[in-house]
Amino acid sequence: MHTSLEKKFQKLGVDNAPGQETRQKADIPDLRGEKLPGRAVDFSHGDVDAFEPTPGTLELFIDGFHTGGRQAYTEYRGGKAARIDLAEKLARYTGTQLDPERNVIITPGTQGALFLAMGATIARGDKVAIVAPDYFANRKLAEFFDGDIIPVEMHYFDFNDRAGLDLTELEQAFKAGARLFLFSNPNNPTGVIYSPEEIRRIATLAAHYGAFVIADELYSRQIFENRLYTHLCAQNIMNPENLITIIGPSKTESLSGYRLGTAFGSAAVIDRMEKLQAIVSLRAPGYSQAVLKSWFSEPAGWIQQRIAQHQAIRDELLQKFQAAEGMRVRPTEAGSYLFPQLPPLDVTIGEFVRIVRLQTNATVTPGTEFGAQFTNSFRINFSQDHKAAVNAIDRLLKVMDRYRK
Amino acid sequence: MHTSLEKKFQKLGVDNAPGQETRQKADIPDLRGEKLPGRAVDFSHGDVDAFEPTPGTLELFIDGFHTGGRQAYTEYRGGKAARIDLAEKLARYTGTQLDPERNVIITPGTQGALFLAMGATIARGDKVAIVAPDYFANRKLAEFFDGDIIPVEMHYFDFNDRAGLDLTELEQAFKAGARLFLFSNPNNPTGVIYSPEEIRRIATLAAHYGAFVIADELYSRQIFENRLYTHLCAQNIMNPENLITIIGPSKTESLSGYRLGTAFGSAAVIDRMEKLQAIVSLRAPGYSQAVLKSWFSEPAGWIQQRIAQHQAIRDELLQKFQAAEGMRVRPTEAGSYLFPQLPPLDVTIGEFVRIVRLQTNATVTPGTEFGAQFTNSFRINFSQDHKAAVNAIDRLLKVMDRYRK
Question: Which of A115, A122, A282 sits opposite B111 (nearest CB)?
Fold first, then answer.
């Protein structure tokens, strides 16, 4: 087949993508010492067995099934009742105003929202500003839609009161013609939160240069130590028609198995997203949409408890990483990710990740998935069984010691 | 925003797409005579209340939910156990051989399969041969991926022992450089089946010109009068690496609400489809994938009964259309669609469809969704409550008489 398509799909490699490790068929790496036995932990994504879905979701799904055709065949942008409910809840959550008919779309997961939002805003050759590090699919999506990526660095080790986005680089990207800025807040993979000043500066720059912004707030409900979180959409700095915000119940709420996400904001872009949805997968799974009723309507205290449990895991893992000589890690401020930096090793990050998998039964994601320069970092999702996670990281650190330079 | 994106999304209009009619905001058309009251029937898609999902699917979903993380987070191409089961069942159904690790992918609906298959095979400027009439998304997908469409006519009124594809036009399309031929069998919207000779000729031409073929067999299980159905993939004429077949349980089995589809064939293209899935929506809904166990494993006689019920509806509607002066319709051979041609009217097809909706509470899809030239046809999905469907078509025909030229 085509050379151009071949190139395009080479860039879309998924072998190291979270969850795909079982399909890896690489050579056996340089294994040193004995295997360290222990319960397998897949840190590439959260464990919905350890942190179960919000109570009552299965019952809502069953109700949806019994509702029948109306629930199976919703409008492409999602069922009207669900959108009315969502618009009200998301407006309250973010402190903004949303018209359920114009400003909200229900998507197959937040990945679906991201795909549709980018497909609706990027044309061939468009310059797209993307944070490094950030969610690995951001870069792949920009490439798939033939955008030209301008990376904007985030100096996440240099601060503890802001994400550390290089705002000078961001302005340069806009000056160079970037039409779209895409970022996750809290940041994936580092788990840091953008400060109010950073958010306002992003909005001011985007407004000044007339750029479009996609803000991925997937993890914004799981905030540690009651840190301040700033929704860009509530700042009233940018034209709201130049902004799409993405959020979904797959993570903190553990509803991944239902494939649900939402995007809200620009009516014109949401129209386009719906048109694209019509040819991509028609709609978010119909019966699943009924589950959205539980979202932002969890039992009292449920989210708080979930946050506390995650914070306890984070704290114990942080201690271990901080105690390991030569390792650097910034504490997660929100979400379930940690992005530790390794001491100098005599194997590559790709080899290290495979060695850890073979020797300790722990699966972690290489930093290079989040930007080519992150050759000595890896990401873990610590939404896991607490004890199993701690033990797996103990094993990982022991194996790491065998490869120190 | 962009002119190029604006143009692209203008072509992707969904206002007349099945299921989207409630979002139409057009002028009130020329209404003549009284409204004809009656139960609303949405012929734009099947009614899963009239024809319920295969028995046992909800229980399988619930089992999937209780399976937990393994079911929520499958590989992007779908859970391994489901793929092993599917490969065996689809191989038996089509009379071919499939490796579950290489040749099968589970997708969010057959729409998802179609999107991924086309995204994996079309690059900008590629010539794509598409049947007229055929499923409306085929054309939209080719346009979205910047393909150049070469229409190939199907003379469906001229035959009753074959679909009537213009094979000379198809060869011309390949000669002109078409790299991909995409067709649905049974054809959507006409419900006709390609003859063994047509299928073999398509395969021979594709093999000769080295073209890729996507065969959409979505409705191939619901065949009337035991007509012969020919799976292209079982002909051993083409290189199997140049063929993808698409099928799913959304239609005859009424499992639309779970959003499930599959594609099978070319290992290289399925690899690409998985890479694309990874950025489009990650995976088909995890818990829903458990429902695939019921597919091709329905209770004895269940499919036969469903076919008989649909055939009875088809027969009664056919009689009505055939009795209407100046109307033409070819009997459905498989699936649930009829594509009648109207007598000369003094309103456009777009106006007619809106008039019918306002005056009779029946929703039908204008022929122009299936090719710009079908300005005097409309499509109905007759998978509906039998009596309600018959009454709605009675009303439609009465209203039609008011607009005769």
Answer: A282
Picking from B350, B351, B326, B354, the residue whose alpha carbon sits closest to that of residue B340 is B326
Chain A interface disruption, residue of B49, B287, B288, B384, most A CBs within 10 A: B287
A267 touching B, CB under 8 A?
no
Of A108, A120, A141, the CB nearest to B281: A108
ipTM above 0.90, yes or no: yes
A223-240 tens-digit pLDDT: 999 999 999 999 999 999
Calpha distance B227→A161 (Å, rounded): 71
DSSP track, B49-100: TTS---TTHHHHHHHHHHHTHHHHS--TT--HHHHHHHHHHHHHHHT----T
With CB atoms and an 8 Å threshold, state whether A5 touches B68: no
Candidate CATH numbers 3.90.1150.10, 1.20.1250.20, 2.40.30.10, 2.60.40.10; the one for domain B3-52+301-401:
3.90.1150.10
Closest Cα in chain B, distance from residue A21 (Å) = 9
Neighbour tally for A308: CB within 10 Å = 11
Q: What contacts A116, CB < 8 A, 6 or more positions away?
A: A105, A107, A263, A273, A276, A277, A280
Q: pLDDT band for B19, please (50, 70, 90 cuts).
A: low
| Interchain contact A6–B (C-beta under 8 A) | no
CB contact set of B162 (below 8 Å; sequence gap of 6+): B194, B195, B197, B198
Q: Is the pLDDT of residue A26 over 70?
A: no
pLDDT in tens, A203-213: 999 999 999 99
pLDDT in tens, B240-283: 999 999 999 988 999 999 999 999 999 999 999 999 999 999 99
pLDDT at residue B26 above 90? no
The one-letter amino acid at B234? A
Contact A58 B65 (CB under 8 A): yes
Q: How far is A369 from chain B (nearest CA, A)?
A: 13
Shortest Cα distance from A255 to chain B (angstroms)? 8
Q: What does pTM read for this prediction?
A: 0.95
> Which of A19, A53, A115 lies at the smallest CB-CB distance from B279?
A115
Q: Please judge whether B286 and A257 are an interchain contact, meaning their C-beta atoms are less than 8 angstroms apart.
A: yes
The verdict on a CB contact (< 8 Å) between B12 and A64 is no
What would you measure as the largest C-alpha separation in chain B, in angstroms?
Answer: 62
The class level of CATH for A12-52+301-401 reads alpha beta
Distance in angstroms (rounded) separating the CA atoms of residues B191 and B49: 22
Residues 168-207 of A with CB under 8 A from B: none
Query: What value does the mean pLDDT of chain A take?
Result: 95
Q: How far away is chain A from the Cα of B275, in angstroms, using its nearest Cα?
A: 6
Extents of the domains making up chain B: 3-52+301-401, 57-294
Q: How far apart are the first and last CA of chain B?
A: 44
A332 falls in which pLDDT band (50, 70, 90)?
very high
Best of B279, B283, B294, B365 to disrupt the A interface (most A CBs within 10 Å) is B279
Q: Give B 51-80 residues with CB within 8 A of chain A.
A: 52-53, 58, 61-62, 64-65, 68-69, 71-76
Which amino acid, residue B347? V
CA distances from B71 to B194, B282, B299 (A): 38, 13, 25
Contact B75 A258 (CB under 8 A): no
Pairing of strands A180-184, A212-216: parallel
Burial of A178 (0-12, 13-18, 19+ CB in 10 A): buried
* CATH number belonging to domain B57-294: 3.40.640.10
Closest C-alpha to A215, from A198, A224, A226: A198
Bond into B133 cis (ω within 30): yes
